[in-house]
């Protein structure tokens, strides 16, 4: 009987609460699900076009399906518009901007509930204006 392979320590320093504690991921560039979808699709298409083995594993297939379902913005121009909008908010961490671009919350309260670190960083009025602009871009993209 073989012993089960144990899971290594994931670090445990990461916490996304009222204070962001991203441990070794602090300062790492983050992506929205829409941006991740565009990158993965571009890599797969490039490999197919150049007759490079894609090795379409079950994990890759499931990830692509997930990203297709949950990506709010399907076109590169739309992703660029959201990215440009969110980058104007230097007071927000990259993680927070990516979450806002992925979740597309309807209200400031919803955003602050799902992303607790926004609580003391941005006023409800400013957050509402940002969310309204994201919503406008999202409806424009559909």
TrEMBL record:
SMART domains, alphabetized: RPOL4c
Keywords in alphabetical order: Nucleus
The parts of the chain that form a coiled coil are none
Annotated membrane-spanning segments are none
Q: Which SUPFAM superfamilies match?
A: HRDC-like
Annotated signal sequence is none
| GO MF entries | nucleotide binding
- Residue limits of the RNA polymerase Rpb4/RPC9 core domain? 23-141
One GO BP annotation is: DNA-templated transcription initiation
Q: A GO CC term?
A: RNA polymerase complex
Which subcellular locations apply to this protein?
A: Nucleus
Give the highest taxon in the source lineage: Eukaryota
- Family (UniProt): Belongs to the eukaryotic RPB4 RNA polymerase subunit family.
- Protein name listed in UniProt: RNA polymerase Rpb4/RPC9 core domain-containing protein
What is the organism field in this record?
A: Aplosporella prunicola CBS 121167
